[in-house]
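quick one, 319 residues, struct below
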Amino acid sequence: MNKKALITGIAGQDGSYLSELLLAKDYEVHGLVRESGGKDGSWRISRILDKLIIHSGDVSDYGTVKKLIAEVKPDEIYHLATKHDLPNSLENYLAIRATNLDSTYFFLSSIKEFSPNSKFFFASSSRVFGDAKTSPQNEETPMSPDSLYGISKVAASAVVRMYREREGIFACSGILFNHESPRRGQEFLSRKISKTVAEIKNGLSYELRLGNLDAVRDWGFAGDFVEAMWLMLQQGVPEDYVIGTGETHSVKDFLDVAFGIVNLDWRKYVKVDEALLRPTESELRADISKAKRKLRWTPKIKFEELVQMIVAVDIRAVN
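---
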């Protein structure tokens, strides 16, 4: 009998790549989406939608989660749904807490009650390290989040650890550093750059406004990261892992490659906007020694190849 997997955030960047990976491994893949029935789907999963079993509901609704776990009893659960930082307000704080923290508790509680053999993966983030004092960061690095998003991920990871240690649930967190692809949302830096490069090349735009150009990131390919997620649930013992590339590149490095593809000098088009500067800017770089050693995992796509991949797709789209 084929394994059953449930993916939250299945229509997102990571969910779409993970779906393809699991389908290739002959999994029965279920996805939880907010749309009614999910039949209209998303452009990321439209070509495989007929191979997926889509459920409608909200991860922050306890009733939805309990019913889903009780009915499906998946072998593996990948909790990828997340709410990113939004302007500070009570409404946005409650949305971040509900999606990132409360939902994690709902899933683990439901697993304990209805499907104790299910394995659970939680997508944490390098933002848990926030204002890091040391670099690179590994599984033992103290967490010091400097955003509501980071705080919610730290708290949810603590819930994962509690259910693993006290309840015996196979539950683990993947501390994921920046991972990009052509399927990344356009509100993220990588796509903001690539889309504007394509528009400038075609005379549709003449300026790109960014924050700190000297900021560095550990940028990897989302398609590589989902393989690490899967490997984490294939281990005999559940553990948390840092997933990244171990290399950092500045925003200027990204601009060099992206504008170089269209033979343009980014200095003529990029303007620093002080409103986009972050209050703190630490070097977040992954130490993936544990993932290499225990999962036998290393990223395949290198930085320049990743940038070229993203820009090429946006150029085709604009053309």
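Residues 36-41 have pLDDT under 50 and may be disordered.
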